[in-house]
Amino acid sequence: MGSSGFNWKLADHPKLPKGKTVGLIVLDGWGEANPDQYNCIHVAETPVMDSFKKGAPERWRLVRAHGTAVGLPTEDDMGNSEVGHNALGAGRIFAQGAKLVDSALETGKLYEGEGFKYIKESFPTNTLHLIGLLSDGGVHSRLDQLLLLVKGASERGAKRIRVHILTDGRDVLDGSSVGFAETLENYLAELREKGVDAQIASGGGRMYVTMDRYENDWGVVKRGWDAQVLGEAPHKFRNAVEAIKTLRQEPNTSDQYLPPFVIVDENGKPVGPIVDGDAVVTFNFRADRMVMIAKALEYADFDKFDRVRFPKIRYAGMLQYDGELKLPSKYLVEPPEIDRTSGEYLTYNGVRTFACSETVKFGHVTFFWNGNRSGYFNPQMEEYVEIPSDSGITFNVQPKMKAVEIAEKARDAILSKKFEQVRVNLPNSDMVGHTGDIEATVVACKAADEAVKIIIDAIEQVGGIYVVTADHGNAEDMVKRNKKGQPLLDKNGNIQILTSHTLQPVPIAIGGPGLAPGVQFRKDVPNGGLANVAATVMNLHGFEAPADYETTLIEVVDN
Ligand SMILES: O=C(O)[C@H](O)COP(=O)(O)O
Ligand SMILES: [Mn+2]
Ligand SMILES: [Mn+2]
């Protein structure tokens, strides 16, 4: 029994034993696609992953990792780490942030909630600031939702609106930010004609300004703070479209890495610093890259960087980003209630867990895995290890990242026999894939494959079981394609590099000496997705999954 009185006891699996060490490996951004020169996984030497596919067809299959299979609004929505790891850990499909915000805007419920009422109190006298990612990527935010929110707020009394934009180029094509900024500018110009003083006030590239995660580099958040709150940045422009066009011409920059800028008036004065009495909304729905800025905006007690000024604002997130910290305390849309995750169940059923990644993905196998909840369920049963990531670099210059270090930590945890589940995320194919550097991504895929080998060798030694899968596609397709699947060229005849995730399915392989001989993938779950993995893993630990979990992918046949 848990402290709440809920019965966490899982039924014994009728055929599978308990106590085996299960090595659970998530390759970040590793999908299955046609083998061609833009498929970095195909081009790279990946003998271990290849052997799973070729060696044991009944223990290798593909699962869906995008669209409705992971709770996203449509089948055109690519998968991402948040929804992917949520599904892997929770074993059920929850309507995710993107979808919840769509419906709250459509029904108008967003405007009836506590969060909106709270910020609305600032409207008569002060400015409403909106900070977030400007694109239609649908991973962290969506431009159409921003426009609806601006419209809705202005109709409900917001007279002065300032938007602080973060340019994307990571979930969408590099170079597309100019177009998104134009769309927003045009919309704000229409509002100005209706008497609402609405403008873009500052900006910067998402990877260099504001959207860091898991406390990898507070300098990123500080650059945003200086521009958004203090109105200070190295670059000043009269409008955002001009800012983006100009700054993109600087060497080594891109939408993702644009330096911070502020918009100034004809006297050179910033048009939108954040001051006492203002309302602020961070309009991203996705959690990981909003937690740090939320702390800076909300916590009176804060020592991560010198804020210089800490204005008394009314702050709300689009969603609550951390369910454990209850951060932020005010929000516009209720987050998905991802409860009773597999991690929590396993702590009550004697399964000791070790989880590890490097900083940039650490929260994926902990926070996202556990339903956007930071911390341990039970520190006696769990150990989470974070390997510090390199900061201040783009990962194409270091494509091996910390794969070996992660794998060695996992190996040691497996060999220690202190844990029944050892879970890692290997970031390489995703983080390097996002840079759009094909050669470096090939190196990244090879490095991830080598790390898998280190972990499954340890599993061999202890007579354990491995489960190798991925959270969504990325490195298997590095080029934008037309409907026929042919690479698209830009106006200069160059191929259009795809920095984003894909709609592809991902592999899952099971094996190892501890796997009971008759275990194989069922044939009757052809549409299986990431949410089916949790029940599968519970079985491999010797338990039946709870009845409301998505069904297991495996069966045990008599040989
Ligand atoms: O936040 C990011 O880096 C990208 O937008 C999505 O990548 P992830 O979902 O793999 O983290
Ligand atoms: Mn991912
Ligand atoms: Mn990614």
Automatic annotation (TrEMBL):
Domain Metalloenzyme span(s) in chain numbering: 20-544
Binding-site residues for substrate, renumbered to this chain: 140, 170-171, 206, 213, 286-289, 361
Binding-site residues for Mn(2+) 1, renumbered to this chain: 430, 434, 501
Record pathway: Carbohydrate degradation; glycolysis; pyruvate from D-glyceraldehyde 3-phosphate: step 3/5
Keywords for this protein: Cytoplasm, Glycolysis, Isomerase, Manganese, Metal-binding
CC terms in the record's Gene Ontology section: cytoplasm
Localization terms from the record: Cytoplasm
Family per record: Belongs to the BPG-independent phosphoglycerate mutase family.
Protein name: 2,3-bisphosphoglycerate-independent phosphoglycerate mutase
